[in-house]
Design goal:
Length: 146
């Protein structure tokens, strides 16, 4: 009985709570508040199809086969990117496609992380969608620099 009375182990959780009670919280009230990702954050890909050479290195190196591209050669002998798709539903954001991209600044990382969707189809990014997201992500990057 006395042992039970002096056993104060049930007060331990209160000690932990007390320790953290006056500390600044490390969480934010998303979506009202948003954290700024670090500089090297691997978010949504930024793709510049005007500069893309259609070499296919990004698609070959991707471990999850997320990238598909269709390239045709015109009568002038120049390559034309007909299709460039990234299926983000399979992407693990390893960044290999960006590291191995042979074009300068063709494929880049952005700090955009709000890319969740309600179905698999919504995670497919083609040229047009990548162009649109490139614009919005670039504006975001500029806004964060200010
Ligand atoms: S980040 Fe990795 S998984 Fe995603 S598309 Fe690029 S190579 Fe593939
Ligand atoms: S590696 Fe770069 S230049 Fe080559 S197809 Fe992919 S995005 Fe285009």
């Amino acid at each position: 009985m006395i042992e039970k009375l002096v056993n104060l182990s049930h007060l331990r959780p209160l000690k932990v709570v007390g320790k953290h009670l006056f500390k600044t919280p490390i969480t934010v009230q998303y979506p009202e508040e948003r954290l700024t990702p670090p500089k090297r954050f691997r978010g949504l890909h930024l793709y510049d199809h005007e500069k893309c050479m259609g070499c296919g290195a990004c698609a070959k190196i991707c471990p999850n086969k997320c990238i598909e591209l269709k390239v045709t050669v015109g009568s002038d002998g120049k390559k034309k990117i007909e299709e460039f798709n990234i299926f983000l539903g399979r992407c693990i954001f390893c960044g290999l496609c960006i590291d191995y991209c042979v074009g300068k600044g063709v494929l880049k990382n952005s700090p955009e992380y709000e890319i969740a969707g309600y179905d698999r189809e919504s995670l497919l990014y083609g040229i047009d969608r990548l162009d649109r997201t490139k614009k919005s992500a670039s504006e975001k990057i500029e806004g964060e620099k200010k």
